[in-house]
């Protein structure tokens, strides 16, 4: 199996975690796209979806899946999304697709977070993948200086504007051993909208696509 096949296998395995007649939280990225395609095949069994990005909204609607506004939803049984890295405690780095803030919001509402990923994403220590931080545009340089004080090397992701109209700094050189602490610290910097550490709200289940099939961790 190549990487795409492992992503697809993990995404298809997530269908077993979707309750009947519910609204499903849907993430963003290539693995989430495989999940949306799999969801389309059972769309008669669900009410619809809440999405974490405009890109996923377009793909869901393209499949004829109803997309709801999160503000109109009281409860969300499950959120399914990929990750850029996930450790053995099921803490993640997300935001490679610049959708981290909406992903974190939908994940916060969801009762269960099912992470779908290929085996390359499973790591002992987070931080090899540069940590995305969504920033209000006028605060970009200030936030970058503050991130340097925390030991990181921020790089401006040029040409990218998030669905919320903000910019992304990718922070290189972090070895994230205290994920919850660093998540909180970075979010305290004025001008940061959110950062891509998902530790305060980690995944409940990981479906990992591997050469030996899909492995489940919880
Ligand atoms: C988007 C994300 C994605 O989940 C993450 O980048 C993984 O993407 P892919 O499934 O394409 O490897 O956080 O903001």
From TrEMBL:
Homodimer. PANTHER family: RIBOSE-5-PHOSPHATE ISOMERASE. This is Ribose-5-phosphate isomerase A. It catalyses: aldehydo-D-ribose 5-phosphate = D-ribulose 5-phosphate. Catalyzes the reversible conversion of ribose-5-phosphate to ribulose 5-phosphate. GO terms for molecular function: ribose-5-phosphate isomerase activity. Substrate binds at residues 28-31, 81-84, 94-97, 121. Keywords: Isomerase. It comes from Chitiniphilus eburneus. GO terms for cellular component: cytosol. Belongs to the ribose 5-phosphate isomerase family. One of its GO terms (biological process) is pentose-phosphate shunt, non-oxidative branch. It comes from the Bacteria. SUPFAM superfamilies: D-ribose-5-phosphate isomerase (RpiA), lid domain, NagB/RpiA/CoA transferase-like. Its EC number is 5.3.1.6. InterPro entries: NagB/RpiA_transferase-like (IPR037171), Ribose5P_isomerase_typA_subgr (IPR020672), Ribose5P_isomerase_type_A (IPR004788). Pathway: Carbohydrate degradation; pentose phosphate pathway; D-ribose 5-phosphate from D-ribulose 5-phosphate (non-oxidative stage): step 1/1. The active site is at 103 (proton acceptor). Coiled coil: none annotated.
